[in-house]
Structure formats: C-alpha cells, structure tokens
Amino acid sequence: MATPETPSPSKPQHTAMHKFEPTVQAARARLSEVRPDAYAQTRNHLDGAVTRLSPYITHGLLSLREIYTELHSRWGIDAKHKLVFELGWRAYYRHVWAHQGEAIHQSLHPGLLPEDAYLPALPPDVLQARTGIPAIDLAVGELYASGYLHNHARMWLASYLVHIRKVHWHAAAQWMLAYLLDGDLASNHLSWQWVAATGSSKPYLFNADNVAKYAPAPWHSPATAIDTSYEALDRLARSTGAVDHGRRSVATGLVQPALLAAPPDPRWATPDPQLAIGRDVCLLHPWSLGALVPSEPADLLCIGLGLKDLHQPTPWSTPRWDFVTEGLLQRTPRLWWGSVESIALALQGARSVRWHSDAHIDEHLEHLRKQLQSGPAKPSVTGMAESYLFTPVETYCESFSKWWRLTQLAH
Predict the structure, then answer these.
(1) Is the pLDDT of residue 356 over 60?
(2) What DSSP string describes 207-253?
C-alpha cells in the first residue's frame, strides 16, 4: 500500500471484481498474465495492469523468487524494473518485522498528533460504507465483497480514516487485515504507518482530484470532505479540532461481515493422535498452501494446521477462512484445529514432524517444537526455511532506500 505513486499515461474507464482460487495452478496462471511494462505504466489506476499476485504470495502459493524467475525468463526484467522494486517493498517490510517484532503494532516514531488524539475504533458509517463519499464507500464495499483492494484504494481509505476521521492507524489496520485475502501483517501494518506518518517523514494525503485522475466515474467524490486542497488537508491532518465530514452520511449502507476466530467449515477436526503414531508428518499451515513437501517416505502424513492460539486474537472474514480451507484441502484431506498443546499431544507418537517457516506462525510453531521435545517420545522436528529473492540484510534499516542499497537479488 505505502509506496509513492507515479503518473500513468492512460486512464482506465471501469473497475471489476476479481476472484482468487487458492491453487498453485491459479497462481501460476495469474503469473503468466502479468505484463511488467504495462504494470509499470498503469499500476496507479484502479483498472491498471496490476499483478493481483498478493493473495498467492501471502499464503505461500508463490514466492517472490518464483515470480522474479518467471518474469525475468519471459520478459527480461532485472533489479531496476519497477515491478521488482515493488517486490522489494514487500521484502523490506518483512525485514522491519524481523527486527522490530511485535513493535510493529506500535508507532515506529511519533506521528502528527499525540496517540490519544485518535479514535480507538472505526465509526459506524465507515464500517457500513455509508459515509456519502463514493471513493470511501466503494472501497469498503469492495474490501468486504472480494477480500482485495487496489493499492491506491487502500491508501485513500487509510488516509481518510487517519487524517480526516482521526482513527488510530492500528485500529484501522487490524480491521483491514481481517478482510484481506492478501493480509500480510508486515505489509499491511507498516503501510498504514507509512500513510499515518508514524513510519515515514510525512503523511500521505489525497483529494477528490486525485481520485478523479486514477479511478472511474463511480468513485469520483466532488463536494465531499476530500474535495479540497492539499494545503487544507495538511492543516486538517495536523489539527485536533472538530472535523468537517462534508456530505452527510447516507441512511443505508452495508452490513459489516462477521469476523470469526475459528474456521466455519466443519471439515476442520479435533487432532487425532492415532493418525500420527510412527509416521513422518508434514504440517501445512495457512501461509504454506503451495509449499513443496518431501516425496519420501511414501506414507508421509500431511496435515493442515489451524492454531486457536494464533487466530483468537486476530479473527478473519469467512471468505479468507474459505480461501485457506480450500487451499489446504487441495493438499490434504486432514485438517486439524486446536491449541498448540492439543496439537503437540496428538503428534507425540510421530517419528518426525516438519513444517515450512513463516513469520505469521513461527512463534507458535516454536512453542509447538518445545512442547514436542519436552514430551516422552521427542520426535525429531524440522522447520524448513522459505526461499528468498533479496539477500538478507543483517543490520536494521530504518528506510527502504538504505535497505535497497544493501540488499541484492539472490542467485
């Protein structure tokens, strides 16, 4: 979300919803449709040639390295291409998360106003998509309906909530994360901080002219709170006074979809200790839907893993649960839902247990490792590292530009 925008030479005329199938085949098909130069030229328009690969990246159906390898082979792109630069932002946010840990849930540095100047929750008219500002209401509606938003629409929504409605960036980031199919904690939260100016040097602001330039007519928002100058918006962003919301909220809107702390699909079952006895087990989790699994032994037991400990504080929308559930069922018919302790107890009889690393779940998997190794059977445990496109930078970089200078493409 939070990367500087660049002008684009053409202006698309409409937007369309996009459906994401949680399969490797669908991910590869989408990758085959990417046109890097068209992306670089039109990515800021809501109907520009954006990749729409992010749900597949987040959930492990595609890696950054796979994407680059394919596009380099087909189109000859290199590290200087705009698309590779944008992949770098995703890797950089993971770099920040690796060094800051849970601190990314807090402002990286002071923003425009004191923390307590912002609201701790979203106003009802925003949650129900009835602010009366088309660019905002359409963005909320599309988020609910498809689980996906164009990067520009995310930025507009974030800027409106933080700088005009005075909602704390973290409350809004948590809300958006719950509905996004591509909800990557680092990319989402650090992008919100970029907009809020708690992770950047200045706030991201937009107005009705910006919307008219990059969005089709239904999104245009004249005579609303965003139809003003950037100077006025900057003063508003720095003011703790009353906010003029412009056009009055409309009477009817959308019902906010429920968020669930557990998967609604009954195919998620209680862990069965009998299945794992004497077996080599590979755990597949929501962020490793496309992960390669060993071909040996022939009786390798693959289990889709859902952890109560992880999801209770961060509920998901039904479409995201469905995406993950169907993605795991493509790999295995066995889905386990339980606490770390119950999963560890069910795996005590296994010969070995392995899984693929991801920052969203690594802390809980480390807890699982300790539980397994403290039990009587002590099965061998292996965490398989994810591949990377950009070489790791050991020193923490507070800016993308510094990180970009120090990293390089992995070969």
Answers:
(1) yes
(2) -HHHHHHHS-GGG--TTSTTSS-HHHHHHHHT--S-----SPPPS--
